[in-house]
Amino acid sequence: MADRSAIEWTEATWNPVTGCTQVSPGCAHCYAKTFAERWRGVPGHPYEQGFELKLWPERLDQPLRWRRPRTIFVNSMSDLFHEEIPDVFVEEIFRVMGEADWHVFQILTKRHERLLELCDQLPWPPNVWMGVSIENRRFVHRADYLRQVPAAVRFISAEPLLGPLEDLNLGGVDWLIAGGESGPGHRPVREEWLIELRDRCSEEDVAFFFKQWGGARPKSGGRLLDGRSWDEMPAERSTVV
Questions:
Q1: What are the angstrom distances between the C-alpha of 164 and each of 23, 36, 180?
Q2: Residue range 183-208, pLDDT digits in tens
Q3: Domain of 51, in residue numbers
Q4: Which residues have CB under 8 Å from 81's CB, separation 6+?
Q5: CB–CB of 195/202 below 8 Å?
Q6: What is this structure's pTM?
Q7: How far is CA 37 from the centre of its chain?
Q8: 55 Cβ contact list (under 8 Å, min separation 6)
Q9: Residue 140 belongs to some domain of the structure
């Protein structure tokens, strides 16, 4: 059975790598790190090592055993383009995704530079969607790197959204996910930041998905923006460029 996900924009998670290190402000209250560190030192637990990076080669074939088609978030507990993950392991993950062509795989990274470094040596089957996280205006350049990746669907996760993204270029982007931060010490998101993103997505034909307002818990603030939910999903481009 697949690892079912509570994340609204996906159906399941696959973690052939766990653990990560912080690279930007969006990592400050990382839900994955908080969860993993709860189990540090517990013998035999998958997170006995806490949030230290760990490869799980025995998990590589999991999607091949999940026969029902589903949308799968890859490395929800890590970053596939972390500098300590060997190139050959990233390549093997891509090989599995290409072989398991009845699924859709969603990859999200904050490591845009390594993404571009490895891009040309990786296959990009049409069932692999590639995204970058952009939490404030300092990191809108991650979208420039994403635009150079020949993925069938390119997307941006503006979550946690920590400031306005008025300088974000949505060219070549198919989908934008936005949301506030949740958990202890969460930083509030402003409605005007979200409305501006939603309106620009509408104008530029980019699918818009509002995940949450955030708060003490993920569901604290609900999911309504401007009186309704926003659950748009991208349409795959017929030609990869």
A1: 20, 30, 12
A2: 888 999 999 999 999 999 999 999 99
A3: 3-154
A4: 90, 109, 111, 114, 115, 118
A5: no
A6: 0.94
A7: 21
A8: 16, 17, 85, 86, 89
A9: yes
